Amino acid sequence: MNRIISAIILVAMFAGANIAIAQDNLSPQRKQAIDSLALEKVRDLSKYISIIGDKSTPWSDAQRVIERAVELFMENSEMGVSRKNSPDVSYYKVREYFDRLMQLNYNKVKIDWYKIQYVSDLVRQPDGTYVGVITIYQRFQGYNKENGLVYEDTTKKDITVYVKRKETQIGGRLIGFWDVMLGDIRVKETK
Where are the domains of the chain? Predict the structure, then answer.
């Protein structure tokens, strides 16, 4: 009798473990939704960078956009900055990058992102987090009043994407959801 009870308890524990694991695995539909959310966040970042870099954006508006942009990132994430005439790449914490972008010594800055695409599928990590990489191409143009366009480059960048299971309480119930956060943005090449 004890063996039967032990077997039932063991089966119940195993079934409960499978349910918990199943909730952490991504179904194809859930993965597609997460991929869309990640790409949407990258597109939002692209818009924020354009607004922050635009010299006609009022300082207070740029500061508000910086706050929204910083919220897209994991803590301590860095962004790479390069120039076409130097092999060096400098990395700055996200907020510092945005502050520096506002202070660029151009009268006008135009920044466009294009060819935004996943280059690596989401891979599950031991802690249950999924990690992937999105590649973008950034066209940067800097203008001054006298000469017009004075600097232009195109940079290929890889953005690390983290997908984590989180919980929130709504109406007294604990609700689980997947959240997408951006990580480091690494420079791959500049032309």
Answer: 27-190
Q: Residue 111's closest CA among 61, 58, 45?
A: 45
Q: Who has greater pLDDT, 166 or 66?
A: 66
pLDDT digits (tens, 9 = 90+) for 83-118: 998 999 999 999 999 999 999 988 888 999 999 988
Label residue 46 by pLDDT band (50, 70, 90). Answer: very high
CB 1 within 8 A of CB 9: no
**Structure tokens given for 33:** 């939704």
CATH 3.10.450.50 fits 27-190, yes or no: yes
* Burial category of 163 from C-beta neighbours within 10 Å (exposed 0-12, middle 13-18, buried 19 and up): buried
81, 187 contact by CB (below 8 A): yes
